[in-house]
TrEMBL record:
Its EC number is 4.1.99.5. It is an enzyme of class 4 (lyase). It comes from Ananas comosus (Pineapple). The keyword Membrane applies. It catalyses: a long-chain fatty aldehyde + 2 NADPH + O2 + H(+) = a long-chain alkane + formate + 2 NADP(+) + H2O. Residues 129-269 form the Fatty acid hydroxylase domain. It is a multi-pass membrane protein. Keywords: Endoplasmic reticulum, Lyase, Membrane, NADP, Transmembrane, Transmembrane helix. Belongs to the sterol desaturase family. InterPro entries: CER1-like_C (IPR021940), Fatty_acid_hydroxylase (IPR006694), NAD(P)-bd_dom_sf (IPR036291), Sterol_Desaturase_Related (IPR050307). It is found in: Endoplasmic reticulum membrane. Residues 449-619 form the Very-long-chain aldehyde decarbonylase CER1-like C-terminal domain. This is aldehyde oxygenase (deformylating). The chain crosses the membrane at residues 45-71, 122-142, 179-207, 323-342.
Length: 623
């Protein structure tokens, strides 16, 4: 079956190599030193700068609309963008390449365009007149035509396949649609230039304003207060709003205008419920209380740029350090300082599971701060405020991420439940499921394991659970008192399976290591060939031994019916979350009413594991 003409991009199969198409312009700009004053080839540089700025407009609108801590109450579609939509819109910037080529061809066709003054007021006024009288009605009638019959099914349906509009959705369309859009944009630009009233200010201003308004309409966040249109009723017919355009994505047969609803009014295609919906959203009445919150934290400056509102292409893939991120280090440092100054928990992502809204909040503290003694009270204060805020909102379960439940910090959350005994929100550290994941990774025929971090919360639970299965546990600890305390918790007939060791050399013949503390390359050398390293340490140990295997951090894959998930959780694969996160999800789905804080209840490890499997969660190891 052949595709319709102009329904796919000629460079569709080039991947990232499509940017080579900018090569001739870049080469000409550099070889001719286009940045020098008075250089006749400066138009090459202007084209490149303009299209870089256009990409920045789309990115900045995306960043703003996905800063959920700022925009959550004014979102139009409450669901988040999922991985399917992200993948479909991956090459959203194809139109920039197309229009860049069109711009270069226009300059060769009309040499007069190469030497324009900086400003011409009459040209700007003429462009505005042409936009209102030609571009707006032309777009309106063509847009309506694309909603009929074969034109919709072959071309425009692709744009409407995006469930949640984003600024990148504005560029997600077929080549034919963007060719027509280029004509719509080109008339107010080309005519003033041909009659001698063109200017660089007109080209930069019109193109960037055009993109700005397109991105605003697709932003999924209402930015106009309803009182503005109540004070100036006629204004609502001369500038569209994100709500206005979103109604078009919902209904498809109304609100066809480019930027001016006046043409929908004249054409009889204006949806009257738009204004009522606009008022509700601008007042924040579209907000929803989440059932579950995962309280995360930032590890470092580089991983901080993995949050959903920075780069969508980056956050939708497992975290990895990329050279491009180093360029944005100065920006990240400024944002870090702003976060410290603002010092409020912020919402970074959300998704739905079984019809319930799950949100990921983040404490504005970096990983190294958790190990500073003087920062302890401040961090606990922010965690406490997040818990109280969730309790006030009506959140049912709040799960604490790794360092937010550190034993030395707040006793695995006990500090908060002891202080606030009337909490309605259930506080969960999720370590029970973390222990279950690690334990179920260990082969059934293992007779002996070596455990570091043996007296930690997780180490204790793992040791007590394994000894009940008559597995010998070599517990690395220098504290005999702490070892004996854990040993006494085991049933008398199983206490013999817990063995204290004080040196790592004691594990030189053991092929199953469970790392609860970071292992240096030198320490890993004591493991015999063929050893498998299980781990529950943050940051994870680095695999230096080629003759050994290394497990990943305890994690589980969410059920397939999860909706709106478009962000990878740190280094984990798509759809996979850390076990402590999954533990909170299970707590919610089971409707358990107890807090899961403090020491792990060893008797509940198998209970939580079976509940997780029952609800469709699966260990990451199975994939």
């Amino acid at each position: 079956m052949t595709s319709a003409p102009f329904s796919s991009w000629p460079w569709e199969n080039l991947g990232v190599y499509k940017y080579v198409l900018y090569g001739p312009l870049i080469a000409k700009a550099f070889t001719s030193k286009a940045w020098e004053f008075g250089n006749p080839n400066k138009w090459c540089l202007h084209i490149l700068i303009l299209f870089a700025l256009r990409g920045a407009v789309h990115q900045l609108w995306y960043t703003f609309s996905n800063m959920l801590f700022l925009t959550r109450r004014r979102r139009i579609f409450t669901d988040s963008v999922d991985f399917d939509q992200i993948d479909k819109e991956w090459d959203w910037d194809n139109f920039l390449i197309l229009q860049c080529l069109i711009g270069a061809m226009s300059l060769y066709t009309f040499p007069a365009l190469r030497d324009l003054p900086q400003w011409d007021v009459w040209g700007i006024l003429l462009a505005f007149f042409l936009h209102v009288t030609i571009s707006e009605p032309l777009f309106y009638f063509v847009h309506r035509a694309f909603h009929r019959g074969h034109l919709f099914s072959l071309y425009h349906s692709l744009h409407h396949s995006s469930k949640v509009p984003q600024s990148f959705t504005a560029g997600f369309a077929t080549p034919l649609e963007h060719l027509i859009l280029s004509v719509v944009m080109g008339v107010p630009l080309l005519v003033p230039c041909l009659v001698g009233n063109g200017s660089l200010g007109l080209i930069y201003g019109y193109v960037l304003l055009f993109d700005f308004l397109r991105c605003m309409g697709h932003s999924n966040v209402e930015v106009f207060p309803h009182k503005l249109f109540e004070a100036l009723p006629l204004l609502k017919y001369f500038i569209y709003t994100p709500t206005y355009h979103s109604v078009h994505h919902m209904e498809k047969n109304s609100n066809f205008c480019l930027f001016m609803p006046l043409f929908d009014l004249l054409g009889g295609t204006l949806d009257n419920k738009t204004w009522k919906l606009h008022k509700e959203i601008s007042l924040g009445r579209n907000d929803q209380v989440p059932d579950f919150v995962f309280l995360a934290h930032v590890l470092d400056l580089v991983s901080a740029m993995h949050v959903q509102f920075i780069f969508r292409w980056h956050s939708s893939m497992p975290f990895a350090v990329k050279p491009l991120l180093l360029v944005f280090w100065p920006v990240a440092i400024v944002i870090m300082l702003c976060m410290w100054a603002w010092s409020k928990t912020f919402l970074v992502s959300m998704y739905r599971l079984r019809g319930r809204l799950h949100q990921i909040w983040a404490v504005p503290r970096f990983g190294f701060q958790y190990f500073l003694p003087f920062a302890k009270d401040g961090i606990n204060h922010h965690i406490e405020l997040a818990i109280l805020r969730a309790d006030k909102m009506g959140v049912k379960v709040l799960s604490l991420a790794a360092l937010n439940k550190n034993e030395a910090l707040n006793g695995g959350g006990m500090l908060f439940t002891s202080k606030h005994q009337d909490l309605r929100v259930r506080v969960v550290h999720g370590n029970t499921l973390t222990a279950a994941v690690i334990l179920n990774e260990i082969p059934k025929d293992v007779q002996e394991v070596f455990l570091t971090g043996a007296t930690s919360k997780l180490g204790r639970a793992i040791a007590l659970h394994l000894c009940r299965k008559k597995i010998r546990v070599l517990m690395l600890t220098l504290s005999t008192e702490r070892f004996q305390k854990i040993q006494k918790e085991a049933p008398p007939q199983f206490q013999q399976y817990l063995v204290q060791v004080t040196k790592i050399q004691a594990a030189k013949n053991c092929k199953t290591w469970i790392a609860g503390k970071w292992l240096s390359p030198r320490e890993q050398l004591w493991a015999p060939p063929g050893t498998h390293f299980h781990q529950f340490v943050i940051p994870p140990i680095i695999g230096f031994r080629k003759d050994c295997t290394y497990g990943r951090l305890a994690a589980m894959r969410l059920p397939k019916d999860v909706q709106g998930l478009g962000m990878c959780e740190y280094t984990l694969e798509r759809g996979v979350v850390h076990a402590c996160h999954a533990g909170g999800v299970v707590h919610l789905l089971e409707g358990w009413t107890h807090h899961e804080v403090g020491p792990i209840d060893v008797d509940r490890i198998d209970v939580v594991w079976r509940a997780a499997l029952k609800h469709g969660l699966a260990p990451q190891l199975h994939y």
